[in-house]
Amino acid sequence: MTTPGKAGLAILISGRGSNMQAFIDACASGQLDASISIVISNSPEAPGLQRAADAGIATCCVDHREYDSREAFDQALVDCLADYRVDLVILAGFMRILTPVFITTFCGRLLNIHPSLLPLYPGLHTHRRALEAGDEEAGVTVHFVTQELDGGPPVLQARVPIIPGDTPDSLAARVMLREHIIYPMAASWHLQGRLRLEGKSAYLDEALIPANGVQYRADTS
Ligand code: NHR
Ligand code: GAR
User: Fold this and answer.
1) Ligand 1 neighbourhood includes 174 CB (under 6 angstroms)
2) How far is CA 166 from the centre of its chain?
3) Which protein residue's CA is at the shortest distance from atom 10 of ligand 1?
4) Active-site residue (options: 114, 127, 143, 190)
């Protein structure tokens, strides 16, 4: 559903799409002055696809298994997005590593949410790794996506305590509550023209964002 005049979001998912749902809610409430132009999944089985369709949003599946190379898959994503208004691309639990074919097309307009306190624990199984390391806190980071996996500059980060007896699942559930707050917030900064990628650095209101991102607190806005 593209509303004329409104900024358009593209959301890429691989799974259940709870972060995508947070964007649906933020657009509906007016917290985000945008509409979701298209939701793309690389997997036909992603439950989030049905959720998006139920909300009246255009969906598309670009199944990575049907392409010979990562570049060909990325080109198919770019081709799909060319039919829609896309001011900002949101990776929301999207599980395929992207090549320069995709990244250069959307450079500076591409955000990801990663469930760790970046630069700690890039890659997979972040909560398990934080627990095994005996960390006292875990968290989640919204960052610009660049060629370097989970290495683009952090934008906004929320910290969550680790509680004795935590499992990767219990920790993930606690972190997820914060994900749904900080991701639409970071996107709204971008849509308002407050957030910018320049080289390897991110700026909010023309000020350099620190290496682990703006630290989310209840009064962050
Ligand atoms: N692409 C680039 N170039 N840079 C980033 O920072 C990216 C990216 C694509 C996705 C999300 C990321 C995360 O938040 C993301 C960031 C998937 C993998 C991975 O290993 C790693 C990091 C992220 C997403 N994917 C495997 C692959 O071969 C497949 C794993 C699977 O299907 O379960 O692509 O964590
Ligand atoms: C979220 O916790 C997100 O941070 C994480 O996957 C989950 C997706 O949930 N992302 C990654 O691990 C990216 N590699 P969702 O589908 O319910 O939004």
Assistant:
1) no
2) 25
3) 97
4) 114
pLDDT (tens digit per residue) in 32-58: 999 999 999 999 999 999 999 999 999
pLDDT for residue 2: 56
CATH number, position 194 = 3.40.50.170
Chain CA centroid to CA 105, Å: 17
Cα separation, 65 vs 82, in Å, equals 21
Ligand 2, atom nearest to 21 Cα: 18
> What is the pTM for the complete model shown?
0.96
Q: Is the CB of 139 under 6 A from ligand 2?
A: no
Determine the structural domain holding residue 158 and report its residue range: 112-221
Q: Do 93 and 166 belong to one domain? A: no
**Number of other CB atoms surrounding residue 14 within 10 Å:** 19
96 lines ligand 1 (CB under 6 A): yes
Q: Evaluate if residue 145 carries a pLDDT over 80.
A: yes
- CB 56, CB 1: distance < 8 Å: yes
Ligand 1 atom having least distance to the Cα of 99: 3
Annotated catalytic residue 125: no
